[in-house]
Amino acid sequence: MFARAANVTRSGMTNLVRYSHSHGGIPGENLPFSLTNRYKLTAMFIVFFGSGLGAPFFILRHQLLKK
Q1: pLDDT at 8 exceeding the cut of 80
Q2: What is the dihedral angle through the alpha carbons of 53, 56, 59, 60, rounded to the nearest 10 degrees?
Q3: 24: number of CA atoms within 13 Å, CB side?
Q4: Separation of alpha carbons 48 and 42, rounded Å
Q5: CATH code of 58's domain
Q6: pLDDT at 24
Q7: Global pTM?
Q8: Are 54 and 47 in contact (CB under 8 A)?
Q9: 44 versus 13: which is more confidently predicted?
Q10: What's the structural domain count of the chain?
């Protein structure tokens, strides 16, 4: 029973890789952002992490300035 399940899983993964339209072997090909421009990548990381880390401080400031 386990051998059959393993075989089905293996064939399913093989088909997934085969028909995923990925050429494979290229680092960063499956990422949702480009790695070619280092300055744009750095700016996007700063915006992404800065928004998450800065949001509580802006929310606190907004609450303290409310009348």
Answers
A1: no
A2: -130
A3: 5
A4: 10
A5: 4.10.49.10
A6: 66
A7: 0.50
A8: no
A9: 44
A10: 1
**pLDDT tens for each residue of 16-56:** 666 666 666 778 887 888 889 999 999 999 999 999 999 99
In the block, tokens 């802006």 appear at 58
Domain with 26, as residue range(s), is 1-65
pLDDT, averaged across the chain: 83
Q: Which tokens is 67 given?
A: 């009348």
Look up residue 42 and give its two tokens: 């750095």
The residues near 30 (Cβ < 8 Å, ≥ 6 apart) are: 22
Note the residue count of the chain: 67
Q: Closest Cα partner for 34 from 23, 24, 45, 19? A: 45
